[in-house]
């Protein structure tokens, strides 16, 4: 059954559902933070105001309780989907190290996200911890998406493995070291920019600054530390637009050999431009809920796209030899 094509399709579909559910959970979490609903169930975890399942009447009367409870309900659904896809992927594609890597990272970051969320509710954590929670949520989403991508890639070469016992690599030969450094350096820059933006929002200073492209306020301000961070955040945002343009230009020269890198870079450029536009919308709308949700959702696609390009630039892992490939090798040697 594990070797049937239907099982491979099942694993891929569940992996996609895991990524979609992760996006939904993150989206509800972002809405939770924006509306101040994090304590809609009180300072309790796993209970919601002393109950495992609050009554429908209570949920109807309290929007904050409804949002927070929906966020909590989404986490176990995500966990089940992720575990099913992880077990299925390891059973079918365990010889490919990319699958092992992203199964482990997905489970780790999803569990870490849940723990940080529980701690934030129970202990009323400061803005720095809430921003860290946001960053971990994006890492969890990126890893679940990449798991689905590499499950799909593994399925494409699985038929060859069944016929010959040879496990083909899931990625093409790596480009030059300089490109690899350039792609990977963009990841921590983007992550730091996301963290600063989440910190500003969590500190309550998100609607404090005006002016484009930089804040028009003076340094003497109630949120003077956040003003400096907002300058850094916007500077990094403009810098990242230029970075993605350079990434597209570089990968365009490689698209004959590595079209995957070019496609990923184009996605990253589109997302970073949309992210910049949503940032402008966020400012002129005085941080409306629509602008906020758009801004934090687009950055998810940007982070996944850049991380995909960076990981694709790494030299392909050598798949672990299987018993079938060893037997084929022995037969060839014997002949």
UniProtKB/TrEMBL annotation:
Keywords: Cell membrane, Disulfide bond, Heme biosynthesis, Iron, Membrane, Metal-binding, Oxidoreductase, Transmembrane, Transmembrane helix
Entry's localization field: Membrane
Pathway(s) annotated for this protein in UniProt: Porphyrin-containing compound metabolism
Major localization class: membrane
Coiled coil: none
Membrane-crossing residue ranges in chain numbering: 69-90, 102-123, 129-151, 181-200, 231-250, 262-284, 290-311
Membrane topology category: Multi-pass membrane protein
Protein name listed in UniProt: COX15/CtaA family protein
Organism of derivation: Alicyclobacillus sendaiensis PA2
């Amino acid at each position: 059954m594990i070797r049937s094509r239907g099982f491979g399709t099942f694993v891929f579909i569940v992996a996609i559902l895991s990524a979609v559910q992760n996006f939904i959970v993150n989206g509800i979490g972002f809405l939770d933070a924006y509306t101040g609903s994090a304590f809609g169930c009180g300072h309790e975890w796993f209970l919601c105001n002393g109950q495992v399942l609050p009554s429908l009447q209570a949920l109807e009367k309290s929007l904050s309780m409804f949002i927070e409870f929906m966020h909590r309900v989404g986490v176990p659904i995500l966990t089940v989907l992720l575990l099913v896809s992880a077990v299925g992927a390891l059973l079918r594609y365990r010889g490919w190290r990319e699958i092992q890597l992203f199964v482990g990272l997905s489970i780790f970051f999803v569990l870490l996200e849940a723990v940080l969320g529980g701690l934030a509710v129970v202990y009323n954590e400061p803005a720095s911890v809430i921003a860290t929670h946001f960053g971990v949520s994006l890492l969890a989403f990126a890893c679940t998406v990449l798991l689905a991508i590499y499950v799909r890639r593994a399925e494409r070469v699985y038929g060859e493995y069944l016929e010959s016992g040879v496990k083909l690599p899931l990625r093409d030969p790596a480009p030059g070291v300089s490109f690899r450094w350039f792609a990977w350096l963009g990841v921590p820059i983007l992550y730091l920019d996301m963290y600063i933006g989440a910190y500003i929002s969590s500190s309550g200073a998100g609607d404090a600054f005006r002016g484009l492209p930089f804040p028009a306020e003076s340094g003497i301000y109630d949120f003077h530390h956040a003003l400096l961070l907002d300058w850094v955040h916007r500077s990094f945002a403009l810098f990242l637009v230029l970075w993605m343009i350079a990434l597209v230009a570089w990968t365009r020269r490689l698209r004959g050999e590595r079209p995957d890198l070019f496609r990923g870079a184009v996605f990253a450029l589109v997302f970073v431009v949309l992210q910049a536009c949503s940032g402008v919308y966020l400012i002129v709308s005085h941080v409306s809920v629509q602008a906020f949700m758009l801004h934090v959702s687009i950055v998810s696609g940007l982070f996944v796209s850049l991380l995909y390009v960076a990981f694709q630039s790494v030299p392909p892992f050598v798949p672990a030899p299987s018993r079938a490939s060893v037997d084929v090798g022995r037969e060839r040697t014997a002949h």
